[in-house]
Design brief:
This protein is mainly α. The chain is 70% helix and 7% strand. It is elongated and about 130 Å long.
Length: 455
Amino acid sequence: MATALVLAALLLPAAATAQSPASRILFRVFLSDGRVLASYGEWARVDDRVIFSLPTRLSSEPELHLVNISSGHVDWPRTELYAESVRAVGYADTRGEADFAAFSTEVAAALNDATRIADPGVRLAAAERARQALVEWPASHHGYRIGEVRQALTVLDEIIAQLRVTVGQTRFDLSLSAPLPAPPPPPLPPPTDAELIEQLVTAASLVESRHERIPLLQSVVHLLDRALGLLPKAWADRIRQSVSGDLDRERGVERAYAGLRRQALDSAVKWSLKGDRRELDQLRQYVLDEDRRLGGSRTGEVAALLATIDAQADRAQEDREARQQWERREPDYRRYRRATRGAFDTFKSVTVALDQVKAMAGPPANAIAPIGKRLAQAGVRIGKVKPPPELATAHALVHSAWELAESALRLRSDAAASNNVDTAQRASSAAAGALLLYERARADLASAMAPPSPR
């Protein structure tokens, strides 16, 4: 019973040390060169990048900048160890006391129960289970109360050693004296305004996108203005001069790249419309040369610009090939037009009659036979035309239109002779189909024979 009381006293929760709220929120990204960046909340490691929010002001409503840098800049052992420190503080300030109180009560109760066990061997096993629970607690609870756990383990190890002698064990498990892991170091204090300014300058030197760099530099100037008179003047003037120079250079480079982008896109469209692949290839090389001259600081934008030029060059190549192919086929198209012109003129001349058949309103019975004869004669001429392969489908539609037109006239003649409404309706349907197929065929032929337009 006395042993359980001693251990319970050692494990009783003590007053927790107050922590700054920032200690639970501000992580750190330690760089390989020794510099440190604050991270509002945990950083994220994605592939070869590290993404985090860098504060420019610490308040109830902090101002944050999203920073994306290469993971190669980071001292990962220090960064990950510090993250554990912040997690430990957050745990201690929230659930730590309640969890430890419940745990210590369970351990004390288990040891108290063990004192009532008569069998020394069973009592030893219960004590060893309690010890194992003590050993595992800090590792799974961010090292919380590791000092109290160490003291309790010292007392419990002595008791276990005595119990082992009692049961006749002469060789002890060396794990009784195995050290517990060291607790993580305490978090750093929140950065001062001067430190935040230096961290913003550092982050601006590491980010690879101007969309991130320029806002970071602008935030430095804003912080300097806000803390005017509160920071060492010589230091603030030096930082302002350096950052202002960086901003001027960034804006100058941005203007240069914007001009290059406009010029390249305008030229790409012009040469693409002309189908000039050679000029587009030269334009691509010009963009690469200008990018090198400007320091190669817009990798993503230049890559997108080159991709656009390449797409225009491929399109120009395709347009030129399509034009060359059309030029090879154009003599065949001229021959096809000459061979079909008369027949198509004939069909066009009978469309009025076909519209009348469609409307079941004519033509006069004595006019149907001459119209049908002219259409049939033109159909014979159409049947003798051998179209180029690429026109074969549309030419087949012409045949179908002709057959329906001849059928419509025959049915209309029969309907007029027999005064049969059903036959007149069938003639109307055939005429409608003939007109529709003919228009579709002529449109397809015109499209297939038209010269390709630049895209």
